[in-house]
TrEMBL record, chain A:
It comes from Callithrix jacchus. Residues 548-574 are annotated as: Disordered. The lineage of its organism: Eukaryota, Metazoa, Chordata, Craniata, Vertebrata. Residues 305-433 form the Beta-Casp domain. Component of the Integrator complex, composed of core subunits INTS1, INTS2, INTS3, INTS4, INTS5, INTS6, INTS7, INTS8, INTS9/RC74, INTS10, INTS11/CPSF3L, INTS12, INTS13, INTS14 and INTS15. The core complex associates with protein phosphatase 2A subunits PPP2CA and PPP2R1A, to form the Integrator-PP2A (INTAC) complex. INTS9 is part of the RNA endonuclease subcomplex, composed of INTS4, INTS9, INTS11 and inositol hexakisphosphate (InsP6). Interacts with WDR73; interaction is required for the assembly of the RNA endonuclease subcomplex in the cytoplasm. This is Integrator complex subunit 9.
Automatic annotation (TrEMBL), chain B:
It comes from the Eukaryota. Its cofactor is Zn(2+). Residues 245-363 form the Beta-Casp domain. This is Integrator complex subunit 11. The keyword Metal-binding applies. Residues 16-233 form the Metallo-beta-lactamase domain. GO terms for molecular function: hydrolase activity; metal ion binding; RNA endonuclease activity.
Amino acid sequence: MKLYCLSGHPTLPCNVLKFKSTTIMLDCGLDMTSTLNFLPLPLVQSPRLSNLPGWSLKDGNAFLDKELKECSGHVFVDSVPEFCLPETELIDLSTVDVILISNYHCMMALPYITEHTGFTGTVYATEPTVQIGRLLMEELVNFIERVPKAQSASLWKNKDIQRLLPSPLKDAVEVSTWRRCYTMQEVNSALSKIQLVGYSQKIELFGAVQVTPLSSGYALGSSNWIIQSHYEKVSYVSGSSLLTTHPQPMDQASLKNSDVLVLTGLTQIPTANPDGMVGEFCSNLALTVRNGGNVLVPCYPSGVIYDLLECLYQYIDSAGLSSVPLYFISPVANSSLEFSQIFAEWLCHNKQSKVYLPEPPFPHAELIQTNKLKHYPSIHGDFSNDFRQPCVVFTGHPSLRFGDVVHFMELWGKSSLNTVIFTEPDFSYLEALAPYQPLAMKCIYCPIDTRLNFIQVSKLLKEVQPLHVVCPEQYTQPPPAQSHRMDLMIDCQPPAMSYRRAEVLALPFKRRYEKIEIMPELADSLVPMEIKPGISLATVSAVLHTKDNKHLLQPPPRSAQPTSGKKRKRVGDDVPDCKVLKPLLSGSIPVEQFVQTLEKHGFSDIKVEDTAKGHIVLLQEAETLIQIEEDSTHIICDNDEMLRVRLRDLVLKFLQKF
Amino acid sequence: MPEIRVTPLGAGQDVGRSCILVSIAGKNVMLDCGMHMGFNDDRRFPDFSYITQNGRLTDFLDCVIISHFHLDHCGALPYFSEMVGYDGPIYMTHPTQAICPILLEDYRKIAVDKKGEANFFTSQMIKDCMKKVVAVHLHQTVQVDDELEIKAYYAGHVLGAAMFQIKVGSESVVYTGDYNMTPDRHLGAAWIDKCRPNLLITESTYATTIRDSKRCRERDFLKKVHETVERGGKVLIPVFALGRAQELCILLETFWERMNLKVPIYFSTGLTEKANHYYKLFIPWTNQKIRKTFVQRNMFEFKHIKAFDRAFADNPGPMVVFATPGMLHAGQSLQIFRKWAGNEKNMVIMPGYCVQGTVGHKILSGQRKLEMEGRQVLEVKMQVEYMSFSAHADAKGIMQLVGQAEPESVLLVHGEAKKMEFLKQKIEQELRVSCYMPANGETVTLPTSLSIPVGISLGLLKREMAQGLLPEAKKPRLLHGTLIMKDSNFRLVSSEQALKELGLAEHQLRFTCRVHLHDTRKEQETALRVYSHLKSILKDHYVQHLPDGSVTVESILIQATAPSEDPGTKVLLVSWTYQDEELGSFLTSLLKKGLPQAPS
């Protein structure tokens, strides 16, 4: 059993598990932090961005000035942004049988895998994961495609040139494998390979392995996965939360008794308390708006935004902000808001019971009805007519490299009245802001990451008691910036096995048993015998049938009746099949009782001699000698088959068969 | 011999008060708990005293499963759980859990407030009953206990309707509830995988019908409605608040829009708005088209259909009214019917099945003079039309589902005896599957054969499988092992391992036989002759002549000795262990016959 680690990003995992005869990809995360090295894509021509100076080497050589631009001491690639894909060379991806998706953030690399590696398998995901994942992909494609960029820089990727570049470009890994965004056509084709599953649904793979998604509590439809056979169990925990937000709570009990638990997707901000961050978010938002400034919230179109809107729904009236417009701008804003309302079955209990009334589960329905929240596909069109300031704008992309957010950064960046509040934890906010420097607008960092922290992990592990834990190497040491915080790492016994990108781990499994079915006719013919109190034995001789990875035991075929007399048999016909083995024997033979039995069966003239290790029973008349020792019996006789068989059966009476 | 027992308490050769008891591998499950619309006395509910005479239902039943929210499937639930007394789990899907209490309350109001029945369940009882409900997702495997598991499949029919698989170990039963096999304007078609249950319990409402295409029926319906309103008549469509109503509303709404019609369409009050709301919130349960387009346009927001007010019934001019309930047995639909029945310009369209005893059933069977309460006779002059829009599978659909699931046997419920008989024959002849149709209170017992799952040690299995791959393995090979049974843990291991695990030593039983041969040659030569003789006969065995002069056949040892007294006689000592019994015994008898004459 092996684990191939294709991604080094702990919250955007992509691992391949070889389990029994199946090859299972666990998640398909796309590392988008690579885009931070690129210049933002402005929706509206930005003189500032287009006038940035080209970068030249220390010696003044400016041959890269078309590809690289400098902004406030940082160097950016002036090209279509590119993403860092999971490793595609470590294992032949066309051999992957199935892909299990845990949540919509962890499927963004799916089109690269399903469309370009010869993949012919099936992808499994829950319905909300697929629907919202589709929205995220649609938004991404839309953001990139609506700002066509003629230039695609490649010179800087040359290894010899990359060495000469300043950090972080110099240290960027695997740049040669970075790829541009996929197209909508590829997205649709990839999504058509997904089969929808429900929580606790048992899915059989080739009769050998069963996989089951479990609620993970992190996002709508997010799941952990159990991969098991009858005797082995792997739990895949990815992006789980124990906080009560909108999704159904995490199912912890089903993770118990795992041989191996693969743990990914913990909180990226282990020191921040999400509740506190939401409070800070609200108060900073109120402060800015009261002072006449605008608030910009770079965000994904689904997920935490639902919780933020719910908080604001309760907060704005009490804070006297009910007249401040909330704008949600995304090509998929409307879909996201609508979809959130129809997945009642995937929501927490409170929200579920609202649907029974029937009322929409999320209060943003009311915000929309009362015109407090308005949504637009982009800044073009209706939005420009409705736009009033001061206001709050939720828009993407959180990397600040593409999407409508770029426009608002350019528009509001120069005034210190305005505030940008970072709530998504996926990108370093300082790096995100770098191409906008110098910046007058206030920046507040309120990362809200509801995924498990290390205290919760250690409680969880105590609770579910896996034999072994496997996790990304980042979790086995304190964060580099807080190397003294020994509490910010996984602490378990035996120590967690760690992996890094492009590594192959052999999982510590000892497979000892396999399921087999005993057919009823055979079961009826078995004769169990109690050996010790509570333990019975039966010897089994049966025919083994194996089909589709399932094993069956059937009764042995009846031996054909001897057809004596009809045909002359050749000598060889009677040769018994030596593979018809007799059972093993165990026990010992008490000499006195044995002799009594012999007498009872008509043997006379019996003599018993003691030897060093046991006894010798002599049947003088029959010229037969029986050596009896603790663990063996030896019958030595003339070639009188009748006699031998009689003696054999008497001996067997004292022994147990196995 | 293990067996599965099925007893319908309701819906046995009948439509109404569906309630079926299933015993499988020691577990007792009740499927549905419905009421009968044709009765107003005790017979309206199933006879729960059948389950247990003196004991708590909770002790006897492991769980109750409700397939969908129609009252003939859940109408007796509060009576059963709160008045008879049952505290165990009740499983149903989320939409059913949401809508069921509303219909129950509606039913209660008609029974108590309108008909003045006493000793009926109360609103509080409905609430208490619903607290015992556990909601299930589609395809989720729900562990009722360690052994009993259930799984819901999509059934179409109405919002949230499900078929259920009930499984214990390798035995399973599938209960369809009501279902339809063709997608309609708002719901998808039922679907089940090839789960090969021991028994499939299916409804058979339309056991003998093969319905024409849906499109034709829809066109027909629209034409009749259109013609009636064109000539100034009123159209009454009795429906149940949820289900068919939404489908017909979508149909009329799109038609009105296309034809630009202005004639008002009303939907009888109360449930309407709310009902449509449920459909909006449970979009994932509707058909693919609605799911795909709901963001742009939610099909359940109707522009042309407005809420009905009692006073509207007397308005002059044409109109279309959807009114509840669907079988004209009580409530608003019956009131409107009485008002409009006398005018031949008007029309009533019955879009679904009506059980015996209801006004709906009477007018559909041609009765035109109806005796109402107080000896009043109502003459029906309005046109009466029947259109099968109720979403049940027809004969073709039922056969299709049986084909999908591949059960060992089929049991029919929820249909009329005569029609069932026809379908039973069809299933037995065409699909070669045994088919049953018990009446209420009659028990069907099906023996099942159970294979026993055990764990086989991987070492033993691999050894066998490796040998099974050898080319000479033409005849089936025998696997030998020892089954260790400890509590409920069954493991099959090699005999050696079994001995080791139990801390027992092997006892070796060995035989040595003296075979006397007439041979004057030296021992070594005798041995050589024995070797060539055996070698020529035992072609499939490993025969060896060892340097020390002895001969082995597999693990059987043969030594030639010369007893001193007679030089013409040699004694062969043949020695084998009990494990080689067959071969050893064979060899001695073979050698006893002597050796072939050596060519001299």
